[in-house]
Amino acid sequence: MLSDKLKKWFSKNRVWAIYELLQKLPASEFDLISALYEKIEVAAFSEALRLHVFWPSLNKKLSIREDYIFPQTQLHIVYYSYALIEIGDRAIIRADSAPHHERDYHRKLLTNFPHHLHDDNGRICSFSGELEDFINLAVPYVRQKRKDLIS
Amino acid sequence: MPKRKKSPPITKEQFLARVMNRKPNREKAVKNLLEELHAYEMKYQMRSEFFYKLIVGTPLEDQPDFLDWAMCYRGYLQVFQSQVMPESATADAIAIG
Q1: How many domains does chain B have?
Q2: Does the ipTM surpass 0.90?
């Protein structure tokens, strides 16, 4: 079993990777960096990351949850749940690795079971399991709302 | 439109250095997890232990709150497990070296 210090070392690199991916989205309206320091410590202790990025003026938040294991000398994501949520807790899109769906809404087998996405109509779609792909899918929803606010 | 409060720009090196300089605070981590668990227990009027036994692993789990609640509970258990399990100095040496 790895020490907390080593888990922290792996966790901080994962959190930095997440921070870099978040640069594709509008800047958080809160001090994200300070929040990340704390999240890394909790991740090291609990082997799980729970991060919420808020945009109150856009009525949206991004929820990132990952469960880790630390086999030998690496960090491995065993479960995750990513969700773009409208304030009021309605999920716009969300993705997770819970093994509850084998087929997409066309009845085709998921390409990367158990990874799947619930699209903006609540339909099950194939998903890669990568946070980067989820953020790419979230970008238009966040930008659209922003455009609405400006116009 | 309200002015956005941006995080200050920071390099990876600065970020990682600041993280490692912070003193770990296990009590605060536990407190945060307990607060989150408590919020779910109040919302669904169910103890986390029962929720985990009844819901997790079933199709009912596939709800955002339940997935999050399950992950939070596993994290909570992990914190306590890590307190009683001995740490491996060998593994540390391999990774750091």
Answers
A1: 1
A2: no
